[in-house]
Recover the amino acids of this structure.
């Protein structure tokens, strides 16, 4: 059975057909609408998925935000193009006519990444640093989930009580300090208005302001990892996302983490499946739940 895999992010929506060999084929993508319109998101999904539906027997969605009873929402709605509520599962059921699963993208990615770690690892945390900051937690070989979809939203733990206002309504969340959006919003002078990618390119060339923004982000993620070590006693942290996988990012996180007392230390590794972790993990979960 082939799976129609869909990844809904704050910047783009991707789709592909994934077969039993775990290879992605017929890959398509569109920008995520930012009009705050359910109609526009419906249109975007329809245009993206229509050519792929005939090749699939089920669908699997990895989406940013909170999934509660098939409805997509977010602690920080700006990551969803401003949408507060979206009946994702119902719309996809009607559009595709297929059975499917809908799961948070970081949780899905955590499951995919856990499938390739050493068998001795019982507890692992996946952190995505991208438009926002999200996470998925594997505890005692099981994916931590909850009926409300809130479990694993580690990007809204506090990094700096005097930090910037987060889209969730609190100040100083890790997401408000470390995400790609936060990096761009904090850029000043010559860096103002530049993308996170541009800022990181300048950091690689030694630009002091760009380096400061990068270090602020990696330091916040290192602090988050230390907190998660205390909460879960995780044996491994895997980092993904467009920012998290940027050159030099993980090594900088590890350098900051090494400055903490030894009890906070945990190995940090890049996502094996890179930017495909979410779609692959959602597909694996769909295979388990839909026969």
């Amino acid at each position: 059975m082939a799976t129609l895999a869909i990844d809904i992010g704050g910047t783009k929506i991707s789709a592909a057909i994934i077969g039993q060999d775990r290879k992605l084929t017929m890959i398509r993508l569109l920008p995520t609408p930012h009009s705050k319109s359910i109609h526009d998101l419906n249109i975007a999904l329809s245009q993206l998925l229509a050519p792929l539906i005939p090749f699939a027997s089920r669908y699997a969605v990895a989406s940013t935000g909170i999934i509660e009873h098939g409805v997509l929402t977010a602690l920080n709605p700006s990551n969803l193009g401003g949408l507060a509520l979206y009946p994702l599962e119902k719309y996809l059921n009607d559009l595709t006519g297929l059975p499917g699963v809908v799961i948070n993208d970081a949780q899905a990615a955590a499951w995919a990444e856990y499938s390739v770690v050493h068998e001795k690892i019982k507890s692992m945390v996946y952190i995505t640093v991208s438009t926002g900051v999200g996470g998925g937690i594997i505890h005692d070989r099981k994916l931590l989930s909850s009926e409300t979809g809130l479990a694993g939203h580690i990007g809204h733990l506090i990094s700096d009580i005097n930090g910037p206002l987060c889209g969730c309504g609190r100040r100083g969340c890790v997401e408000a300090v470390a995400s790609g959006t936060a990096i761009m919003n904090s850029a000043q002078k010559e860096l103002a208005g530049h993308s996170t990618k541009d800022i990181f390119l300048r950091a690689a060339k030694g630009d002091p302001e760009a380096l400061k923004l990068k270090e602020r982000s990696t330091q916040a993620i290192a602090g988050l990892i230390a907190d998660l070590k205390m909460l879960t006693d995780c044996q491994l942290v895997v980092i993904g996302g467009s920012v998290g996988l940027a050159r030099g990012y993980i090594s900088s996180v590890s350098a900051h983490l090494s400055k903490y007392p030894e009890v906070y230390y945990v190995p940090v590794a890049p996502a094996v499946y890179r930017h495909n972790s979410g779609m692959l993990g959602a597909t694996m979960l769909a295979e388990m739940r839909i026969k």
Notes: The mean pLDDT is 94. The first strand starts at residue 3 and ends at 8. The radius of gyration is 18 Å. DSSP finds nine helices and twelve strands in the chain.
